[in-house]
Structures are given as structure tokens and as C-alpha cells.
Amino acid sequence: MQPKCCSGKQGVRELTETADFLRIIAEPNRLKIVCLLREGAKCVCDIWQHLDLAQNLTSHHLKVLKDFGIVSSKQQGSKVIYAINRKVLRKFSNLLNLYLN
After folding, report:
1. Largest Cα–Cα distance in the chain?
2. C-alpha dihedral over 34, 35, 38, 40, to 10 degrees?
3. Residue 8 or residue 34, greater confidence
4. d(CA 95, CA 12)
5. Segment 11-23, tens digit of pLDDT
6. Which residues contact 66 (CB under 8 A, 6 or more apart)?
7. Which residue among 38, 43, 68, 85 is least enclosed by CB atoms within 10 Å?
8. Residue by residue, what is the 3-state secondary structure of 41-84?
């Protein structure tokens, strides 16, 4: 008998989503961005200088994280401010616990 986390339509969907999450977050620069945003919301101008990347590449990684829902953004004057979407991170933390516990 297969474990619950690997069977049924919901289990397969959650498995696929979790694998996608891990692929996205496994990129070192994206993981660094998430780490930096743990301290609070920031604009790309505050993030890229902590990475060994140009600002446009930092923006690309932020877009990937945003498209997946890991970070959210809001316009503040001429800047876009990025923040961690803690609800999404909790969801994937809980899903990972299904496979590891």
C-alpha cells in the first residue's frame, strides 16, 4: 500500500507542487533572496547589492519567486517592494513534513 502522500489525485498534485517548489527554491540566489526577505520587505535596489548578480538578474529571480507565489510585491511610489508570502511557505513546509515524517 502506498503512503497517503503519494497516492490519489490530491497526493499526486501535492507531490508535483512540492517538487516544483523545491526546484525553484533550490537555486542559490533565490534562496538568498528569501533569506534576505526574512528580515522584512525590500525593493530590488536593496536586494541585488547583497547578491553577486546584476540588478536585472535579481529582478528575474524575484519574478520567478513571485510567479510561484513565494514572494508578493506592491508598488510604493516608483519602487516595487517584495515580501515573503508566509502562507505559501507554511503550505510547503507542511507538505514537506508529509514526506519527511
Report:
1. 56
2. -80
3. 34
4. 12
5. 788 888 889 999 9
6. 72, 73, 82
7. 38
8. CEEHHHHHHHCCCCHHHHHHHHHHHHHHCCEEEEEECCEEEEEE
Of 89, 101, 98, 73, nearest to 22 (Cα)?
89
All three cell numbers of 38: 526574512
7-100 classified as CATH 3.40.1190.10: no
17-50 in b/e form (b: 16+ CB < 10 A) is ebeebeebbeeebbebbbebbeeeebbbebbbee
